[in-house]
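PT: before anyone asks, these are the final sequences, not the draft ones from last week. 552 residues across everything. Please model them as a single complex and drop the result in this thread when it's through.
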Amino acid sequence: MAVRDAKQDLGGVEAAAVSDVERERSIASLFRDHNRALVSFLTLRLQSVQEAKEVAQEAYVRLLQLDRPEVHSFLRAYLFRIASNIAVDRLRRRGTERRAAQAEVFDELDDVHEPERISIASEQLDLVRRCLEELPANCRDAFLLHRIEGMSVEAIAARMNISSRMVYLHLDRALVYCRLRSDGASAEQVRQRMKR
Amino acid sequence: MNAPVQSDDPELERLQAAAQWLVRLGEAGDDEALIAEWLSWCEATPENFDAFERIEQTWQLAGVAAARPATQPQPVHRRGWRRYSARSMMRFAAGLAVVAVGVFLLQPQWPQGAQTLSTPVAIHGSSQLPDGSRVELGARSRISTHFDEGMRRVVIESGEAYFEVAHDKSRPFVVQAGALTVTAVGTAFNVRRGEEQVVVTVSEGRVRLASKEARAITPVRHNSHAPAATALEAGVGEQAVYSVQDGRIDLASADPAVATAWRGGVLKFVHEPLHEVVANLNRYSTREIVLAEPALGRLRYTGTVFGNRLEDWLDAVENVFPLHVSYDGPDRIVLVPNKSSSPSQSRTRERGGSEG
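LR: through. Structure below.
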């Protein structure tokens, strides 16, 4: 990914001479190089991989339509900004429509036509649920406030009467712990490994 | 993120870094500088991004797992949830998220902590502040917001910002740039903070200017001899220039469109010292532009520069002023005075150009 970025990183000086055709080509390669990261970034926002993919696609189309010369040199930042804006619009719309925040994941899991998939997913869910129970109480509480109630780090710190830094540590720890446990290690193994 | 080079468990450190990135992106996902840093981390090695995707997958699963009742009996505090169906539980969780967002928008909870917004070189950013005001940040700029029940305070730490202030009589909106404070109620204005001067230009409404230094409160109007006042006001089409060194505020008329042209990617300068011009261009240039001699900085420049076409400007400036552009390695561009000319000669060139 890094190599094709070189042009963009040179800043405005280099990019000014880029023609329309080259520009389209550079947008296409930009998209190719960053699509995975962009989808990943948007998934965080939208809580849905499918929607993240749609938004990434839409951002790409808008970037191609954007007829502003000064955009040339900052394409990557613009791609993320546009995508971010679309995501925010969607979230707003979703708020008014009261759509479920995790609809897609649920639809997938609740699909009665695929019992096998459900059972695998349910097992995964049970495991993650168990992992969350295994966490120290403070760590779990911080994580649930963040993940379920959507509270900011700042707000959690105020609510739990701990520092923001501590909240960050709890959140980081909860994620890494659950990941390593999901990869098959026992609770004891993970604890030992994270202790070092 | 600051993992040591040598490590006995690189995978663990990678996952920890990934978790840190994920949480920070979730917290400040529209901070372009942060996104850029995250992307470079992702691109540093393929394992980094893989780790991020794995952590993200866990993050998603954990969200679902915590919001959904277990398929097997669960101990402790989640038991009560099992009275609900998966669907209603999900709606409950979603509702919580929506409420949380609503609260955040209407009644921002940033009471104690300051919120910082910043942009990297050559990138603008815009954001809605918790009171509904909008701020647009120029390149390489940094502001912090400190809102409480009595006051909306924004500190410009560096660079340039344009504000569209939401009306709220009970809470003044105060922008601070060094010793200068700009107070607005329902106004749009631009503040550019340089090393030697702060320039405030009003697009809508009025602002009140004050300085922490007592002597600063002597307005110097261009065509009138205004007496010393305790505060100075500027309205639409007026521009206040605060001198950091002698604490003086000069008020003159100016086209707000010129001062806010940067929002469209164009930098406009009217009779500005070259050192101010260069300082501003450097917020858009990945290579630092440097003046070889301080005297060059006193030349006055009038003209338009496209933020992404600094090269054109460098070509032009060689024709306008008695200087030449020297490329000093990959990251520095030096403006060097020509031997035969003195800076004073060039001042005439700027005015007419016909004398040359």
